[in-house]
Amino acid sequence: MNNNCNIIKDLLPLYADGVCSKESCTLVEEHIKECSACRSELETMGNDIKLPSAKDTAALKRIKRRIRAEKIVAGLVAGAVILGGLSFLTVWLVNTDRSMDVEKYHITENVSVTEHDNALWLSVNGPAASFDFVYPTLSDTDGDHFGHGKGFDKEKKNGLGYTLKQRRIDALAFTEMGTDGFEKKISDIADLGDDIKKIFYYDDVNDKEYILWERD
Ligand SMILES: [Zn+2]
Hints:
- By secondary structure, the protein is of the alpha+beta class.
- It contains 6 helices and 8 strands, in the order ααααβαββββαβββ.
- Strand 2 (111-116) and strand 3 form a beta hairpin.
- The longest helix is centred in the middle third of the chain and has 42 residues, at 54-95.
- It is rod-shaped and about 130 Å long.
């Protein structure tokens, strides 16, 4: 340990960082060739201040690339999930029926049964014609409905009813069906069978019958 050592020790951190001037670098290098104390001090610093090697940098880049790829995949998956959800919703809205509101569509005024050509016809007019599906139902003399009432007794069936249903989206139903009336043959009177005494419109939401035709 000499005076030079003190100067060199001041320079060592700069040297280790690689920021000292060329003259200082030469001075440090000349000195540590001879002085083991300063050399070992520099080695200690070198361990502390280890710059990332080329290998580490490559590994970092790989990690960054992988994170980016994972983000892209996560984005694609999220997009696919959203698209799938939207198309499922659309299919559901278009293909799932719902009962038409009797009040809103004036069902009692717009749905009737007419008798001509020895047959019964279901006549639907006005906004109620914008239906998509016709559901037939039977009722028995106790007022229970097949598929709805709990105690429906097919031995006692006496009524044939219809329920109009439409797509979940009103706008689609109107666009596709229009509002022109239509007539649908229910049955030839001769084929109706003795047990059917009435034809009715059935509001399946409120379990309510509207008699449209009754046998004389
Ligand atoms: Zn020294």
